[in-house]
Amino acid sequence: MVNKKVLAICFTQTGQLGEIIDNFTRPLTAAGISVENIRIKPVKDYPFPWTGERFYDVMPDAVLGVPVPLAPFLLKETAYDLIILGYQSWFLSPSIPANSLLQDPSFKTVLKGTPVVTITGARNMWLNAFVGIKKLLRDSGADHVGNIALVDRHWNPVSYFTIFHWMLGGKKTKLLNIFPLPGVSDADIAGTNKFGETLLTHLLNGEWNGLQDALEKQNAVAYNYHLMILEAKAGSKYIAWANKVNRSKNRAGSLVVFKYFLHIALFIGAPVILIVDAIFIKPFSSKKIKELKQYYLGLK
Ligand SMILES: Cc1cc2nc3c(=O)[nH]c(=O)nc-3n(C[C@H](O)[C@H](O)[C@H](O)COP(=O)(O)O)c2cc1C
User: Fold this and answer.
1) What percent of the chain has pLDDT over 70?
2) Under a CB-based contact definition with an 8 Å cutoff, are residues 150 and 120 in contact?
3) pLDDT for 164-214, tens place per residue?
4) What's the pTM value of the predicted model, to 2 decimals?
5) Which among 70, 90, 114, 150 has most CB atoms closer than 10 A?
6) Which of 14, 88, 93, 226 to mutate to test the pocket of ligand 1 (most atoms within 8 A of CB)?
7) What gap in Å lies between CA 162 and CA 182, rounded to an integer?
8) Contact in structure between 106 and 227 (CB atoms under 8 Å)
9) Distance from the CA of 122 to the center of ligand 1, in angstroms?
10) 244-273 as b/e: b if 16+ CB within 10 A
11) Residues 152 and 162: beta-carbon distance below 8 Å
């Protein structure tokens, strides 16, 4: 038995993130490290599958970072050598359960001074959520040493349809039998094993420098320039929408309008933004793009 204390903690609604973490931590358990696995749940859990109405209804609280009470969970230790924190992106923000965990006073005490590796399984827009997670980790005094991001690799409009088929239908199956499977692919989930091998080396050496570089060399972090540009534009719009819905006297009606805004943003707004960017901005902004990439992907 290797004497390292590792906690792997996340919320997972469909089980996808849980499966990712299980594969990722397998090399650690194979090396004799006992990994304490905790799946958190809100007291009032989000029923799955979603209805369209409930799905959009969580947008304001997700975007504005409003926490919910979590069902009590007991940790075996008061301090860990490493915490593996799983989170998902909900409306370009940390999911409400992940955000609630990071605002939990007793969990914040455990995070303080502890090396943390974050891991997500998103549709494909996880960057703004990651910025939120980084801020919450910083606020707790955690030592953020690594990050892994897995996504659905299909074309953005395609995964937009297929994720709704999954979230509202409840099954990770092919929409109409012709679309690709939604979510992170089985091969990518299984592939997290190799990131776990890299993590193991650093954990055993107690040396976190170089971990993120090594993970990035293994393509552990899904990055797409076009999606980064879209997320950079969308962040403030979502905050404005969240406030607008909260102020509205007709919440359900405002959320329907938000839903149509999203459709228009994806199918009309996004191509326009990307064409303008390709012609007028990208060719002249290499320094700015580098800074934006660092803002989104950097750990510190
Ligand atoms: C309410 C809601 C909003 C979501 N918004 C996003 C998003 O903005 N970007 C993204 O990449 N994925 C988004 N997803 C997909 C999740 O990040 C995640 O991949 C999916 O819910 C499966 O996670 P699980 O492990 O909890 O089952 C959303 C999912 C839900 C339920």
Assistant:
1) 100
2) yes
3) 999 999 999 999 999 999 999 999 999 999 999 999 999 999 999 999 999
4) 0.97
5) 150
6) 88
7) 5
8) no
9) 6
10) ebeeeeeeeebbeebeeebeebeeebbeeb
11) yes
DSSP codes, 98-118: HHHHHT-HHHHHHHTT-EEEE
Contacts for 84 with CB less than 8 Å, ≥ 6 apart = 6, 7, 8, 9, 21, 24, 25, 35, 116, 117, 119
Atom number of ligand 1 nearest to Cα 18: 25
| pLDDT tens sequence across 160-172 | 999 999 999 999 9
- Section 20-31 average pLDDT: 98
- Of 57, 59, 90, 189, the residue with max ligand 1 atoms within 8 A of its CB, to mutate for a pocket test, comes to 90
| Cβ-contact 130, 118 below 8 angstroms | yes
Q: Which domains does the chain have, with CATH numbers?
A: 6-223 (3.40.50.360), 226-296 (no CATH)
Query: Residue for token digits 């089985």?
Result: 186
| Number of residues that make up the chain | 300
Which residue's alpha carbon is at the smallest distance from atom 30 of ligand 1? 90
Q: Which residues line ligand 1 (CB under 6 A)?
A: 12-14, 16-17, 55, 58, 88-92, 121-126, 167
